[in-house]
Design a protein that fits this description.
Organism: Nonomuraea rubra
CATH architecture: Alpha-Beta Barrel
Low-confidence stretches: none
Structural class: alpha/beta
Distance between the termini: 8 Å
Strand content: 15-25%
CATH topology: TIM Barrel
Helix content: 40-55%
CATH class: Alpha Beta
Protein name: Alanine-rich protein SCI7.12c
């Protein structure tokens, strides 16, 4: 069974490439998935050079300049030597190298170019981290970035944040329900509205309804209860809003298609990851009831359409329960097609896995449901004794 461990460039810099690869290859893992392009964060890193690691938005290699000639947006430079010699070091151990790429989550670019970020129903651009996938400059940037990572000679480009993102305020003392938060997260920039209008949607009515409903909650109306479903959303916000939400899938599907073609043109392949599994279970490993594949539409992800365009998918199986992992993998395969490669991404420790037995059960469930690979997230974020559970999960 194929497998990899997600690795940050700070892990490689702090512990050394040879040491990290020796440890991971010792687990019996087939490869590593390295953060070629990542977003800013502040992480507890139990065995890192620093025990609290501050990451910055950055591309951790030097892209070929001609890829971004004439483009308005360009990658933010990170540790540009991080991939030097890395492919050769992996090859020496017969390990695959995958390029983990965060596409549309970048506060540095968003702050410098706020017009390329999402705009909510009130006309505000309060999410400078989130680049809008409908904006032409963002789309050109994403395609060029995909080519740049593929040219590193990676076995695959693992795409994260290549879709719309949910609302994530740092503080909110307004009790927004799930549907209110969803409406507040919808982008109503000129490009999103134009695309929806071209598909026959009354985009302005949709925007007005979202502003009316969310504004009402801000003014003291009770928040909506229950999970976001198309039926519940139709009853709560009306058919124009639901039609607008559906139109977002055309934006994402066409962008992913362009990126997948660009990667294939460079001799690599795209592994598409949507964040729905993380939205549902990231905090505690107890995902909300709806399966990730069934709710991916909320981020503009049409898995059935992407199944015809993308060769491989990563399922963020962030759940404590092995049966839930199997259900999520199975639902993905039914959506994208049985001939697609599906990789289950598991967290070997807190908050999902409290023992080796639990991790093994989840890996077994993923395999039984049809996953062709199991990947582990992430090397630098969990203690070494937790990483030591990986060999048992691969000996199936």
């Amino acid at each position: 069974m194929d497998s990899s461990v997600y690795v940050f460039v700070e892990d490689l810099r702090g512990e050394g490439v040879e040491r990290v690869l020796d440890r991971i290859s010792g687990y019996g893992v087939s490869g590593i998935t390295v953060g070629a392009v990542h977003h800013a964060s502040r992480d507890v890193t139990p065995h890192g050079l620093s025990r609290l690691t501050l990451r910055h938005d950055g591309a951790h290699f030097t892209p070929q300049p001609e890829l971004f000639d004439g483009l308005r947006l360009a990658p933010v430079p990170g540790y540009v030597d991080a991939f030097d010699g890395l492919r050769e070091a992996c090859a020496k151990r017969s390990m695959k190298l995958h390029g983990w790429t965060v596409f549309l989550r970048n506060a540095t670019i968003g702050t410098e170019h706020p017009d390329v970020t999402v705009r909510d129903c009130f006309g505000d651009r309060g999410s400078l981290t989130d680049l809008c996938p409908a904006h032409p400059d963002v789309r050109d940037y994403a395609v060029a970035l995909a080519r740049a990572v593929a040219r590193l000679g990676v076995d695959s480009v693992v795409a994260e944040s290549l879709h719309f993102r949910p609302l994530k305020p740092q503080r909110s003392f307004v009790p927004l329900g799930p549907m209110d938060a969803y409406l507040f997260a919808l982008c109503f920039c000129d490009y999103c509205m134009r695309r929806a209008t071209d598909l026959g949607v009354n985009a302005e009515v949709a925007r007005e309804e979202c502003a009316r409903i969310v504004g009402g909650v801000f003014d003291g109306d009770p928040p909506a209860q229950g999970e976001v479903t198309r039926a519940a959303l139709t009853a709560y916000a009306g058919p124009d809003v639901v039609a607008y939400a559906r139109a977002r899938s055309e934006t994402v599907t066409t962008l992913v298609s362009e990126v997948a073609s660009a990667v294939a043109g460079e001799g690599s392949k795209l592994v598409f990851i949507d964040s729905t599994g993380a939205v549902k279970g990231y905090t505690d490993g107890l995902p909300t009831p709806g399966l990730a594949a069934h709710d991916a539409w909320q981020l503009g992800v049409d898995l059935v359409a992407l199944g015809d365009l993308v060769p491989a998918f990563g399922v963020l199986a962030y759940a404590r329960d092995a049966a839930r992992v199997a259900d999520d993998v199975g639902a993905y395969l039914r959506s994208v097609g049985k001939d697609r490669e599906v990789r289950a991404v598991l967290r070997p420790g807190y908050p999902d896995s409290d023992s080796t037995d639990r991790l093994v059960a989840k890996a077994r469930g993923a395999k039984a449901a049809g996953a062709l690979a199991v990947d582990f997230y992430a090397y630098g974020l969990v203690p070494h004794p937790v990483l030591d559970r990986i060999p048992a999960a691969l000996s199936l």
